[in-house]
Amino acid sequence: MPRDTYAIEIAGLKRRLPLFEIKPGLKIALLNILGDVELVQACARALGKKLKGLDYDVLVTAEAKSIPLAYALAVETKKPYAILRKAYKPYMGAALIAETLSITTGKPQTLILDEKDHDLIKGKKVVILDDVISTGSTLQGMRMIMEKAGASVAAEAAILTEGERARWADVVSLGHLPLFTD
Predict the structure, then answer these.
(1) Number of structural domains the chain divides into
(2) How far apart are CA 177 and CA 27, in angstroms?
């Protein structure tokens, strides 16, 4: 049986996002930019234009799906970027850790700032970046780590926001996804 999709235009490109049930009676349109080089580049250009004139030093995102966006946006804006990891490795040294609840998995999600990246963002103005902002749980975890690291959040940005549109009025984004209920 074919999966239902949601048609959307993002940064001038058309995509059909598959719908996935995340709990009984509630589906989300899933944006997965991994491997979609054309979309990642277009989104980086469009977000770069929206961030132009904003005073910030570093882009920060959480692994994994938004990593290509962070890289492409760093190239576009000529700003460095840091990735908050989801698992600790010994080479990360004295890392900073925050825990949130992921809507995608429904499980607690750990975000970790590597010791080397702590030095990159300490005392800096950062733009927190994600592919899709839905519940804000990942944003909350990223904000917690930025506070622990002594960085200030200059802006929050995403390709898309999802759910209650008014909640994300301050997020720099390229579009919005509805939630799908039966």
Answers:
(1) 1
(2) 11
Report if residue 67 sits inside a domain: yes
The number of residues in the chain equals 182
Q: Is residue 4 part of a domain?
A: no
Q: For residue 86, what is the domain's CATH number? A: 3.40.50.2020
Sheet holding 13-23, edge to edge: 5-10, 13-23, 26-29, 180-181
Measured torsion, CA atoms of residues 45, 46, 51, 56, in degrees rounded to the nearest 10: -40
18 occurs within a structural domain:
no
Structural domain harbouring 81: 33-175
Q: Are 159 and 174 in contact (CB under 8 A)?
A: yes
Which amino acid, one-letter code, is at 53? G
Widest distance between CA atoms in the chain: 52
Rounded distance, CA 47 to CA 69, Å? 10
Question: Above 80 in pLDDT, residue 21?
Answer: yes
User: 89-108 pLDDT, tens per residue?
Assistant: 888 888 888 887 765 566 78
Residue 14 lies in a domain: no
CA distance 73 to 78: 8
Q: Which two tokens stand for residue 19?
A: 């719908």
